[in-house]
């Protein structure tokens, strides 16, 4: 008789992302850090991970103007920041 070493959990994780290009890139950066953060909290091999719910906690757009030699060639720079709360369903294999 084989014993099952599988476990299914749902967890809540908060992640952050930044981008100098677009809001979408900031969200993508937040999701790319998600797997690393989940692995640090879970023991075992994660073989299935599905985001069930995503909530935007904070989204900011920072604007600043850069100038060459304080006067010439003003250029507007933007930076986007996003903080998400993600509810995740994961399946773990304990070896």
Low-confidence stretches: none
| H-E order | EHHEE
Strand content: over 45%
How many strands?
3
User: Kindly, what is the distance between the CA atoms of the first and last residues, rounded to a whole number of angstroms?
Assistant: 17 Å
The level of helicity is 10-25%
Number of domains: 1
3D shape: elongated
Q: Main beta sheet: strand number and arrangement?
A: 3 strands, antiparallel
Task: Count helical runs.
Answer: 2
- Order of strands in the sheet with most strands: 1-3-2
Over all CA atoms, what is the radius of gyration? 20 Å
Reported CATH architecture? 2-Layer Sandwich
**Could you say which structural class the secondary elements and strand pairing correspond to?**
alpha+beta
CATH class: Alpha Beta
Structure description:
By secondary structure, this protein is an alpha+beta fold. It has a single domain (6-93), classed as 2-Layer Sandwich (Translation Initiation Factor IF3). 19% of the residues lie in helices and 63% in strands. The protein is built from two helices and three strands, in the order βααββ. It has helices at 23-32, 34-41; strands at residues 6-19, 45-68, 72-93. A three-stranded antiparallel beta sheet has the order 1-3-2. Strand 2 and strand 3 (72-93) form a beta hairpin. The longest helix is centred in the N-terminal third of the chain and has 10 residues, at 23-32. The chain starts with 5 loop residues before the first strand and ends with a strand.
